[in-house]
Amino acid sequence: MKIKAFPFSNVLAVLINLVLVYVLYMVTRIAFLLENWSAYSAGWDQLSIGELIAGSLRFDSSAILYTNWLWIILMLIPIHTKERPWWHTMSKWVFVVVNSLGLTLNLVDTVYSQFTGRRTTATFFSEFSNEGNLGGIFFTELVAHWYLVLLGLALVAALWFLYVKPDLSDESRRKIQDNKLPYYLATSFGLVVAIPFSIFAMRGGFTRDTRPITISNANQYVHSPQQATIVLNTPFSLIRTIGKRPFKDPQYMPREEMTALYSPLHIPEGNEFTPPIVDGQKNVVVLILESFSREYFGFYNIDSAGRCAYDDKESPFVSYTPFLDSLLAHSLTFEHTFANGRKSIDAMPSSLSSVPFFVEPFVLTPSSLNDLSGLADCLGHKGYSSAFFHGAPNSSMGFQAFARSSGFKNYIGMAEYCDDPRTGGRDDFDGHWAIWDEEFLQFTATAITECLTEPFMVGFFSATSHHPFNIPPRYQSVYTGGPLPIHRTIQYSDNALRHFFAIASRQPWFKNTLFVITADHTNQVQYDESRTATGVFSIPIAIYDPSGQLPTGKHRGVMQQIDIMPTILGILGYDEPYPAFGKNVLATPDWAVNYTGGIYQYIEGDYNLLFDGEKATALYNYSSDPLERHNLISQPAQSQRVDRMLKRLKAIVQTYMIRMTENHLVIRDGDLPSQN
């Protein structure tokens, strides 16, 4: 088929051919669904056809534009001498070959996903790099699924025979030669439009707050990780996981020894399952504060004599969190409190599902489609309602997708805020990321009352204290900040939390609620102690109980984000088994683990051990040596400590890698002790 639409024939050819690819991708998705209907039919009534289509188009757009960018350039490059039959024959071959490969991959996964439970990712090539029988297996499956082979041939034929070319007759070519200006304007316009559109489609969104989508974003459109395979396509899954270092068993030790040293299973028969510390089914609200480094808090950093805890002890310490300081004085916290990641996308898995960041952010890996537990999921088994609040556009950062996959029943973001006529709507948008914290926190306090029934579990993620650290104009002269640009933003968000608790304290559920205050990660810091291996992870973690049933004060010990889930469940007396990589700090407040720059670190008591995956590289006593200048790794007196800490760290890392690769983040058959 040829198009006579000078001077837009090339532009129209690109549009029509891309539409053809979209249609054929959807055909392969229908084939995928029909072939695997038994795996999805049971939960089909929970799915929204509109969301499935929207999600499918989003991921298809990314894959199609990634794979067709060369062909688009070949078609739209504004050079009139290229308008020759051989050029467009070459372009057609590029188009047909590239898209035939993409469609074939989708059809192959129609079968292969039955064995993996997910779309194929780049880890396939490492998983089967040493296998010599793949050819025979592939041929056997081709014969068994001959109808998919026929469908594949039909799709390739459609690409070839339905492909649209611009008219290249002698008359059309003379028209181009005689009217070069319109030709150049039209093709240049098409290219100028195509480039940003392609980039936006590859990223998965048109706004600057949209992080490039990954396979975990598919959870946003479905109700279980298994259903995410419907929305995804295989070319996208491969592209998005290329270069991502896959999780693999490091085989540091036999599994029996590993399990003896460390287990993420929390089982009722264990000694951490004691009677609940609080009465009844307490509500739970987890507040994750953007970029709230521990350094900003007077509560953590001013000693009993009012002196600064950091290197500049002669100067008076300035706290940027006066409200939180007052709240933490009546909360349960620990001397040392750490994040388990360095990015916002690491905070939700760590704080809400007790899954730390190792090697790659969990939500950016194929393991993000694993079955997953979490606070919302566990408490949901006890009749809790749940909601996650974040004032950014609902698809931002993949938070909505993770909230759904980890068990939250509701997600309330910018869309819901703007739909409420009582709010300022888009006028309250900070211009970069989200609704201002003050407005969205107050909205959250009232929405909890109006939208949830007790008992409930709420997650909240703030946003204003994110770069570029803006605050509303009305506060420009109120908060003067300090040496760092983030300081006045912290002051603003601290005051926004004061307003939140003022409103919350008047709600009927307030006294019956446990509030967890933490941060996602550290940010700009002023003191050298905050730049050390432990310092870059030092954030606040505290539990505030308005009823006064919990012990308060800064206790000796170590707490990390992944401890939040098991600690809260321990406080509530949760009596069902669950997996969590952290521990109940009220039972064992002694260790933490994190990863950065290719280095694992294991914190136990006052010591921090660094491990590069093969050997221990450093040991610091970060309490007596807060700047971590004295590496104790070679001291004979520390050899036993190093050996013991290293074995425990290796057991934790190996357990993590095995459970990620084996989709073992929930309780499975065989996890529990025999009842015989």
Describe this protein's structure.
The protein has 676 residues and is an alpha/beta fold. It has 2 domains: 2-241, no CATH class; 281-582, Alkaline Phosphatase, subunit A. The chain is built from 22 helices and 16 strands. It has an 8-stranded mixed β-sheet with strand order 7-6-8-4-9-10-5-11, sandwiched between helices. A hairpin with a 2-residue loop joins β13 (591-596) and β14 (599-604). α1 (9-35) runs parallel beside α4 and α4 packs antiparallel against α7. The chain is globular. It starts with a strand and ends in a 15-residue tail after the last helix.
Q: Strand share of the residues?
A: 5-15%
Oligomeric status: single chain
Q: CATH topology of the largest domain, what is it called?
A: Alkaline Phosphatase, subunit A
Task: Name the shape in a single word.
Answer: globular
Runs with pLDDT <50, length 5+?
A: none
Walk across the major sheet and give the strand order.
7-6-8-4-9-10-5-11
Number of domains: 2
Number of helices: 22
Biggest beta-sheet profile: 8 strands, mixed
What features would you highlight for this structure?
676 residues; alpha/beta; Alkaline Phosphatase, subunit A; 2 domains; eight-stranded mixed beta sheet; four-stranded antiparallel beta sheet; 16 strands; 12% strand; globular
Topology, pairings included?
Layout: E1 2-3, H1 9-35, H2 37-40, H3 49-76, H4 85-116, H5 123-127, H6 134-144, H7 146-161, E2 165-166, H8 170-178, H9 180-203, H10 228-231, H11 234-241, H12 255-261, E3 265-266, E4 283-289, H13 298-301, H14 322-328, E5 331-338, H15 344-353, H16 375-380, E6 385-390, H17 399-405, E7 411-412, H18 414-419, H19 437-451, E8 456-461, H20 486-504, E9 513-519, E10 541-544, E11 553-560, H21 564-571, E12 578-579, E13 591-596, E14 599-604, E15 607-611, E16 616-621, H22 639-661
Parallel strand pairs: 1-2, 4-8, 4-9, 5-11, 6-7, 6-8
Antiparallel strand pairs: 3-12, 5-10, 9-10, 13-14, 14-15, 15-16
